[in-house]
Amino acid sequence: MGAEAAYRKAIELSPEPDFHAYNNLGALLAGDQSRCAHALEVFDEALQHFSDAELLHANRAVLLEEAGRLEEAAASYLRCVEINGKNDQAVLNHAMLLEELGRLDKAAEAYARCLEINPGNEEALRHLTRLHEQRGDDRAVIRHLSAWRRSNG
């Protein structure tokens, strides 16, 4: 019996929903580009049982982003942040999608939130600085760069 069949059997036979079987099956399917839609179905089904599972929301967000479903991906990353407000990577991913969707004010807020959680997050700083430069907000650029320098010694 292969891994996929074993995970499906575990899901089918388990008297209680099996988080690991769902997550591992979704990850296994996601590894095959042609089966990403099936992986999304697995994560969606898992979330019916484990609605507060940050990892399931994060895995779902990645697949949605890869599928070009950016609004839904952004919502999934936001759900990760709602579950775990200290997840700077989820905040960063959410911010980058907001920026890609053209919601620059919201993106800037999310990048700033990411830097509140992790002042050393260089990617968030780079994106936020670029947004402020595009707007001609030199004071904000200086403020963020100074804060980053202070946090990184």
From TrEMBL:
Coiled coil: none annotated. It comes from the Bacteria. TPR repeats lie at residues 88-121. InterPro entries: TPR-like_helical_dom_sf, TPR_rpt. Pfam families: TPR_14, TPR_16. Keywords: TPR repeat. This is Tetratricopeptide repeat protein. It comes from Paraburkholderia kirstenboschensis.
